[in-house]
Structure formats: structure tokens, C-alpha cells
Write a structure and sequence with these properties.
8 helices; 10% strand; alpha+beta; 4-stranded mixed β-sheet; Glutaredoxin
């Protein structure tokens, strides 16, 4: 079974979804393959001002009952749609960093500390420190056409799901079951679907062990 998490590094709702993602990995590590992919937000989905970002943060923080408010200090007029943090996180994969270290360091620096992660040099410095990488090499890769093309492709995959919310979790098992959770940040409904899909896959394997392949038509 596989879970693909479509995200934007600077998205507040993706930040709130991280505990659910971590809990899924804790519960189902060894049973489920986990991967994340970038789904860039369109310009009209990005805040137009720091005040607007702060309004969004008050709304989402209240909904998830957070004891703290996110920091919109990262916002700089005219720099949207803020793809730099996501491109830097994606570039880390080319250095073997496929886990959550880089993107979480960037999200924390931007959304908790208000650092200007929309700037290449700042984002690369944070990411390199988090993963023990060479800053210059990481920056060069993040600015490459290959990384831009890869994130454009994963964004197109996301759009093909016909959903609009980040985070989106796509669940797939090896018997063709598929479930999509878009905009949810709590672990319970996603975990329930994982349990059902794992159980179905086990049932199919059991049937095959007892009865083999279907007879020819």
C-alpha cells in the first residue's frame, strides 16, 4: 500500500497536517510506502498581504485548537506565489533527503519564526543546515530546470485528482482500491481508510492462497 501526500511547503494547512502525517508513518511504517510530492499553489490561492495571511492563520489556528498562532513574517509583497521553499525541499531529494527534514525545517522557519523563506539564499541556508548538505550545491539544484519540471509534473498530478486543497492524501493499495482525502488534517479518517484498505488487500491474498488464479473464461 502507498500513501502520497501532496503539499505546499508554505501552506498553513499542510503545517497543521504534519502531526497526522507523522502519526500515520508511526502506525503503519513497514506496511505502507510513504511519499510526499509538491503541489504548487496557484497565485490566487496565496495571501495578498501579511494582514490577510494573519487572518488565515487566526482562522486555521482556531479550527485546529492550536495553542499558538503561526507567524506571517515570511510574507513579502510581490514575491508570490512563494515556490522557493518547495523547490528547495524538492531539490533535497536529489541528495538522498527524501524524508521530512528539509521541508519541516523550512515550514518551521517560515511559519513559526517568520523568516523570509521566499528568498533563495535564506531557504537554501535553512535546508542545508537541516540536512547537512552543501548550501551552494543545494541552491544550484533547487534553481535547476529539472527540479522545476519535476514539481510542475507533481502539481499536474495533483490537479488531475480534481481537488483544490492542500494537504491532499492519496491512498492506493495493490488490489486497485483508491481513496483521496483533500483538506483534512486529522489522522482518524485517514487511518480508518488505511485499515480498511490493508484488510481488503490481506483478504485478497488469503483468497489467492486458497483458490489460486481465476479460471480462464
Amino acid at each position: 500500500m502507498k500513501i502520497t501526500y501532496y503539499l505546499e511547503v508554505i501552506s498553513s494547512w499542510c503545517y497543521w497536517a504534519e502531526p497526522a502525517w507523522a502519526e500515520l508513518k508511526r502506525r503503519y511504517g513497514g506496511q505502507v510506502e510513504f511519499q510526499w510530492k509538491i503541489a504548487h499553489m496557484p497565485p490566487d490561492a496565496c495571501p495578498r498581504s501579511q494582514a490577510q495571511a494573519e487572518w488565515f492563520y487566526r482562522r486555521s489556528g482556531t479550527i485546529v485548537r492550536s495553542p499558538f498562532m503561526l507567524n506571517a513574517g515570511w510574507f513579502e509583497p510581490g514575491m508570490g506565489p512563494y515556490q522557493v521553499p518547495s523547490l528547495v525541499a524538492e531539490a533535497g531529494k536529489d541528495f538522498g533527503v527524501t524524508d521530512d527534514r528539509i521541508r519541516m525545517a523550512l515550514a518551521t522557519a517560515g511559519e513559526r519564526e517568520g523568516k523570509k523563506v521566499g528568498r533563495w539564499e535564506i531557504a537554501a541556508e535553512i535546508a542545508a543546515k537541516a540536512a547537512g548538505l552543501d548550501r551552494v550545491a543545494l541552491l544550484k539544484r533547487a534553481q535547476s530546470a529539472e527540479v522545476a519540471a519535476r514539481t510542475a509534473e507533481s502539481t499536474a498530478e495533483f490537479n488531475a485528482l480534481q481537488v483544490s486543497q492542500r494537504p491532499t492524501f492519496l491512498l492506493e493499495n495493490d488490489i486497485g482500491d483508491r481513496a483521496t482525502f483533500s483538506g483534512l488534517v486529522r489522522v482518524e479518517p485517514i487511518a480508518a481508510a488505511v485499515e480498511a484498505m490493508l484488510a481488503d488487500a490481506v483478504a485478497y491474498a488469503s483468497y489467492a492462497a486458497h483458490h489460486g488464479s481465476p479460471p480462464p473464461g
